[in-house]
Design a protein that fits this description.
Blueprint: E1 2-8, H1 10-15, E2 21-24, E3 32-42, H2 44-53, E4 70-81, E5 94-108, E6 115-117, E7 138-140, E8 143-144
Parallel strand pairs: 1-3
Antiparallel strand pairs: 1-6, 2-5, 3-4, 4-5, 7-8
The chain binds zinc ion (2 copies).
């Protein structure tokens, strides 16, 4: 599945179902399931912006309460538009419309630029959320322990 890396606290706000738009300077023809990867950086100005504009959103109080550096959940990329009426939309960007947010167990993995493919075992094709039947873990970024 495709993955999009998003800085915290934005990634949290998406997966918890508050933020229905992701603003990007670029777009893609891809539509459908999208895993959300929480990046390693924390956007403190973004944290303050959410607190000021959406005081009802129950954001964790501390940076340490967020996940960093891994997959945290999944959404549907429904469409990409300009000037979406959502309050999360920024006019100068492409507004990626997101639906059906689903929180998933945190899975550490490296983020990349643009859309990227989720880590997949090069031998058996298993992934973080579809591990081998008897369980497995990553011994290399693209090799699981069942295939060594
Ligand atoms: Zn494998
Ligand atoms: Zn495996």
């Amino acid at each position: 599945m495709k993955v999009l890396s998003v800085q915290q606290p934005w990634a949290w706000a998406i997966i918890e179902g508050f933020k229905d738009i992701e603003n990007r300077s670029w777009q893609t023809s891809y539509r459908g399931g999208l895993l959300i990867h929480a990046g390693k950086k924390f956007d403190l100005a973004g944290y303050d912006w959410i607190r000021d504009n959406f005081p009802m959103v129950p954001m964790p109080a501390n940076k340490g309460d967020f996940y960093f550096g891994g997959l945290i959940g999944m959404v549907d990329l429904l469409d990409i538009v300009k000037n979406d009426p959502s309050r999360w939309a920024e006019a100068e960007y492409f507004n990626w419309k997101l639906g059906a947010p689903e929180r998933l167990p945190f899975m550490p993995c490296r983020g990349k630029l643009n859309l990227f493919e989720e880590p997949t075992c090069r031998v058996c094709g298993c992934t973080s959320y579809h591990a081998c039947l008897d369980g497995c873990y990553w011994v290399e970024p693209d090799l699981c322990s069942a295939c060594v």
